[in-house]
User: Fold these one by one.
Assistant:
Number 1:
Amino acid sequence: MARRKIIAGNWKMNMTPSQALKLVEELKPLVVNDDVDVVYCVPAIDIVPVVEAVKGTNVAVGAENMYVEDSGAFTGEISAPMLVDAGVKYVIIGHSERRDYFNEDDAFLNKKVIKAIEAGLTPILCCGESLEQRELGVTMDWIRLQIKSDLANVSADDVKNIVIAYEPIWAIGTGKTATSDQAEEVCKGIRELIAEMYDQATADAVRIQYGGSMNAGNAAELLAKPNIDGGLIGGASLKADFGKVVNYNK
Ligand code: PEP
């Protein structure tokens, strides 16, 4: 079954609202590709202007985070219904930076996944091993644990529509990319896990991205692998290079 590729930028804590608008304008002609879904995951303060700026284009907007409650006394947090009302379609959940710096554990991330789906957002659920785990040979054990916990009580129909991003921590923002074979091996392992947890149809439908120093130079090779359905791109999403990643097949 052919899965549509999905190329998402993760802007992280970059781009003031005015810088964001400039970047969207610069990228507009470069990110047109009818064969792929294109997403900009942007800082909360950029969501409203960026949603407005991409109207009428092929770009959807994602959030980088959300809270697990709909409303209330949670100073500083943003809820899934708020994101939906603002025009957001995707939300990154469980990025390694949030797991590490903000102590987000799998039980909490599972609540986020469930809340995002309930609200009508598509989670981009991140998982990935540290360099130490890779060297110890426990990469797949670790990722299986993350995904099993993060998807607890999520139905097969819902899993078919989510996006999973495999992001080896040692490759994020370091310029070190996993080789296409290393990335494919884990993405294949994730698909096998989904088949085990659910069924083959669900595994065939779920889209699995690779993330970790993906750029214009390595995207085509990574995206040619049968189990890599897209990319989650940090650094290279903030420049014209992103257009080349989106058009990896041209
Ligand atoms: C990311 O932050 O999800 C990421 C993959 O970053 P980079 O592309 O900069 O490694």
Number 2:
Amino acid sequence: MSETAIHSPLNKVQQSFHWRSSIAWLVLVFTLLVQLAILQHLKLKEDRAARQQFDFLVETTVEAIGKRMVDHEQILLGAAGLFDVSGEVSRAQWRSYNERLQLAERYPGIQGVGFAKAVRPEALEAHIQSIRNEGFANYEVYPPAGNSSLRTPIVYLEPFNDRNLAAFGYDMFAEPVRQQAMQQAAETGQPHITGRVRLRQETHGKIQAGVLMYVPLYEPGRPVASIEERMQALQGFVYSPYRMDDLMRGILGAADPNLSLHIYAGDTEDPDSLIFASRDVPHAEPSQYREVIRLDLYGQTWTLRLESLPAFDAFFHTNNELVIGLGIGLSLLLFFLTSSLSLRRSRAEALAEEMTEHIRENKRALQLSEERLSLALKGSNDGLWDMNLDAGTFYASPRAWHMLGYRPGELQSDLTLWERLMPPADVRQAKAQLAQTMLSAVDHFTTELRFQHKSGTVVPVLIRGYIQRDRNGQPLRISGTSMDLTEHKRIEQMKDQFVSTVSHELRTPLTSISGALGLVNGGALGEVPGSMREMLEIAHRNSLRLGYLIDDLLDMEKIAAGKMAFDMREHSLGRLLEEALASNQAFAAHYGVNCVLRNPAPVNVWIDGLRLQQVLANFLSNAIKYTPEGGEVTLHCTLTDAGHVRINVTDQGPGIAPSFQTRVFEKFAQADGSDSRQKGGTGLGLAITKEFIERMGGRVGFDTSEGHGTTFWCELPVLEASTSSADQGQPRLLVIEDEPDTGRLLHLMLRDAGYAVDRVQSLHAARSKLATTRYEALTLDLHLPDGSGRELIDEVRSNPVTRDVPIIVISAASQFDQHDGDTGIIWLHKPISAAQLLIALTDSLEHARPFP
Ligand code: ADP
């Protein structure tokens, strides 16, 4: 195989794969791009939703802060109202008002609600004294304020406990941040809140930023239209201090908005003014969303910085890594799927191409083979024919038609065409023969048929056929060749003539020569001079040898041409053996060999006596020739199980060399040793022997052991002594069957059913039995060694004595050989059962006319 042949299919697949795989790559890139776009879109949408949510949270937070501050304002305004109504509010009234408000529960983050009284420096002492008089002996206003024109000590602060106690008496006006808010509140008459302060309440724990809200109080009834009037009428402030962390926790409540919140008291994000920072878990990444809002509250601007926390971002942003991972996985999957599909497709295409190439090659091979066939047929000058039994069609090639003088298609082709082309006399036999071939198990057959040429002459044709069968052995189609034998026959005839001429022409003078030499050597013409004797004997011996050779050659010729006629008769084997021994005694004596006959079997055989003598003479002469002087040659018989008798000729010769054993029965075969040449002979004897025995239904063989002699044997079917049953008044039947096993079986079946049975194996024997014995019925095999059973049927039916004897034909070919005029014949197909046979027999006996 060339290298290209090895690689090209693989290369094709690879190339194809590369080309196809670019599609897979394309799919990969495309799906990745699509994913990117989807991811982008998703991100945008997520962003929008997150931003909306963030804005919403910011809005609610800011709103909540504003609302709560308004609530606080309301509380303070309510307290202010209390003063407005009653001018003075006692400590007890203040407490009950506050208790009513339930600040701790409802407004977490308010440190308290207090009242800081505006005290002019001149009234300070009286003020201190009045408070001390209330029972607060240590009451002081602090811090000392030097020359301040206004003091605002905290007088009431509810709840009046805990941290708040630290603020009692504290002058808030003394502290600038508070002062600024108080001043503005007092001047405007509006609530104000402070910037970042440290509350007095930060006595312990973590210090929180503080903010205060003030609502100014004016003495009732006094004008408050201008700043001065308001400052003049200022009675004090109600206020609330707020610890910012607590306040914001109260506002934002438990809800965790996932936002980070920073509040600066002021309009910048100055760390010093930071009043609130949500307690966030520190995080590295910058916030996704942030917003800075300025909130104007009661004279202050709060700067609120709101930022989204990682949890918020995570909530709105799907896990990108996961999505990307999944997407890439999906793309890769698609990629592999596509490439595997393309690979498969490539393989399928490569396979298809390979198959197409195969088909093409087959087609080419078919064309080539058709061409060869047609050339071969042209060369051989044979015709071609084909019978399709299934389809009922018949085809013959132009040459087959020309052979009989027709143009193709000139006659209508069907399965019976061949019958129509035959001389009518041949049809019956040909059909029977064909039927038999069909029913047997053979696949090939060769037969010689005669057909009628268009011109009227008869053309001998050699038909060779092949039978195609189904599983049950039924023929489906028969096809083959036809060969015109006209020329062949003519040559054969010439050869026959030549052989007969030569044999006659050679034999006649040779007989004279041998005879004359025999006479001379025998001394009929007087004493032969010693000097000549040896030469004359050599001449005599060789003339005889030449005679044998011619005889053998003529026999061979006849056998080959199928012209050897066999006169088959029943013979006693013992007698034949005795004769054979007797006629070879002289030859044995000549070689100083003792020839004996042992246990000749008391059986009869159905053979041609002369031919068997020829066989035995050949065996014996060989055995004698090869047995050393003084040795012994034995002729003896054995019966085999299969109903055959074996005739053995055993010698004490050298045996046959293994190298020669396979060729012993071949024509002109002689062992190479000079010994065998010296023994003379033609090498044809055993070949002729084999032919003869096989023609008589037997077989030949030999057993040899080098140095210990050889036994040549032939086996022949035994004609059983009991072929004729003793007559005890039963109906007598004749069984005509050449196949010994079937014959014996029929015999047994009929004998067991109570019939007397005679059994013969040939037409000849049947004729002699019928001539001497009356039979109630016959069973007949159509195929007999000496002719067709059909002949016997015709003979029996034409003889007035046997005309009505029922005949049961038991044959493989029965269905093809029935004639319309056949009466009293029952056809049975082989193999048959006892029941079939007996029913047929009873039927036919009932319908038969009484035998005359
Ligand atoms: P031939 O005329 O030569 O005897 P056959 O056909 O009878 O021809 O024998 C063929 C050959 O077989 C003989 O030439 C011989 O070599 C061998 N052969 C035949 N019979 C015997 C035997 N009994 N012992 C040894 N060899 C034998």
